[in-house]
Amino acid sequence: MGIDPGGLLVVLLYAACLGVILFVSPKLVAPAAATPPWWRNVRFWASLVAVAQMVVYAVWG
Amino acid sequence: MTLSPLDLGLIVLYLLTVTGLGLWASRGIRTSRDYFLAGKSIPWWAAGMSLVVSDIGAKDMIGLAGDGYRYGVVMMNFDFVGCILPVLLAAFLFMPFFWGSNVTTIPEYLGRRYNPSVRTFFAVVWSLFMLATVATILVSAAAMFEGLLGWSFWFSVGVTSVLVGLYTASGGLRAVVVTEVFSCVVLIPGATLICVLGIREVGGVSTLMAKVSALSWTREHFELLPSSSHPAYPWPAVVLGLGIVLGPAYWIGNQAIVQRTLGASSEDDARASYVFCAAIKLVFPVLLVLPGLIALALYAEELGPPGAGWDANQVLPLMVKRLVPPGALGILMGAFIAGVMANLESYINSASTLLVTDLYRPFVRPRASDEECLALGRFLVVGLLLGGALFSYQVKTRFASVFEAFQTFLSFFQGALFALLLFGMLTRRATAEGGVAGMLVGVATAAALTATGQLYLWTAFGSFVAASATLVAVSLFTTRKPDDELRGLVCWIR
After folding, report:
1. A5-19 vs A42-60: helix axis angle to the nearest 10?
2. Binary contact (A49, B84; C-beta < 8 A)
3. How many Cβ atoms sit within 10 Å of the Cβ of residue A59?
4. Residues 22..51 of A with a Cβ closer than 8 Å to B: which?
């Protein structure tokens, strides 16, 4: 099942979003006193949601 | 539709519980900050569930099932592309600036970033839009009560207004969020129930796909991004219009949405609430669109192919009539009512906040005391419900498709709004004059494109491009604000 241009574009948009979550936002958000464990880390869960959407559009887009 | 005593009992129990919860949450409201921002005390999980329910109402449940029947899985993009993507960006890119600037409303932020004209323009436009939305939601509620209980239109509108007004007027945002959390808990099992019953009736997912694909007019019903020749949702319009403009503008610039996160107990809670909302939205679109496909597999001969004059709103009620057993019907109707009430209270509370913060305080009584603003906020809730109720009959009689009217009106100003927010936050170079020019050109472009009959997704995109180009061009030739004035409002200057 090949990926169509529309699906590819959405995957790229989510990849850019992932870039913002992982690399841009740490520079904008005040650093926490201590790094939370993964299950309390908002950035981890947000990345997971973004990756889930990339998979959805890579497979069905 | 005949209701068993059990169903009726469940519906009455739901109405009493939600009203009681709302009134309970109204205790201890002393300042306008308590009223409009819940005293900044909302935990992340409550704000997240509240975000979901503020977006999804009865019109979405009925409308998306109907459009799922008509267009198929492409409708899931309204959440997959139009919600999850902007919500994640809002959490990590935009929200820190709303939070850091300590504003109560989005127009207030725009006013500080650009100038008071921009603030006033968007405050007026959003207030009018919210009044029209209140009327629309009251029409949806009345349609449900008329069909379910045989109540007249005006009696249904009156009962809904009084119940919602009771706790929204007294409790403000806190009461709204508490009742929305309860509504979310009811909505999810209600929507799941209809899908499970439908799939069981069809005989499984593979049978469903085979039956739908066998129809002559469902060629692209299982295409998440249909071809560029699709009559309503070609993929370029979905990705550019919905994903890049309408979705972000709605989730980042809509006061009814952003107010929940501004009321969160900390910046981290606000961010977590957005992510929690995005996680819930991974499954919600499936629950909302799947009933349309199930109806195609079960009742295509009866409902027929969609064409001129075809009523999309008949799909879900027909499924409920045929599939849902007594007892379960009460739960399902509870879910519908949950959607209506949560949607209604969100918009009333936010419209009241906008009117007090962006119009009354700056223009009518700049020295108004906090008590006066609190009292006015409560009075406006009643006034907005009354105005919405009076306007609802016009909506009922004049608009054939309320959902499309809602989207079309949004596309008039969302492109310009998003351009101003985007450039306003990402660059210090955007000037006040550029903001005003971008706003005017964006709205004019949307009006012109609508007049020429463009799809509303293209209208939104065209308006965004025109507003952005104008904002950039004018900003290049005008003087920007000094960094001190932009601190906390723009990326990189905190």
Report:
1. 170
2. yes
3. 11
4. 24-25, 28-30, 32, 42-43, 45-46, 49-50
Contact B40, B264 (CB under 8 A): yes
Write down the architecture of domain B5-394 according to CATH. Answer: Up-down Bundle (1.20)
User: Which of B21, B40, B18, B54 has the alpha carbon at shortest distance from B346?
Assistant: B54
The residue in chain A having the minimum alpha-carbon distance to the alpha carbon of residue B426 is A28
Q: What are phi and psi of B354, to 5 degrees?
A: -60, -45
pLDDT for residue A30 is more than 70: no
Q: Which residues of B touch A20 (CB under 8 A)?
A: 88-89, 92-93
User: Which of A20, A30, A42 lies at the smallest CB-CB distance from B275?
Assistant: A42
> CB B266: neighbour CB atoms within 10 A?
12
**What residue spans define the domains of chain B?**
5-394, 412-494
> pLDDT tens, B91-127?
988 888 787 777 888 899 999 999 999 999 999 988 8
Q: Can you read off the two tokens belonging to residue B168?
A: 């929204």
| Phi-psi region at B304: left, alpha or beta (left = phi > 0; alpha = psi -120 to 50) | left
Distance from C-alpha of B181 to C-alpha of B345, rounded to nearest angstrom? 13
Is 0.80 topped by the overall pTM?
A: yes
Interface of B with A (CB under 8 A): 80-81, 84-85, 88-89, 91-93, 96, 224-225, 235-236, 238-239, 243-244, 267-268, 271-272, 275, 278-279, 282, 491, 494
Retrieve residue B83's tokens.
């919600």
At B304, list the tokens: 């027929």
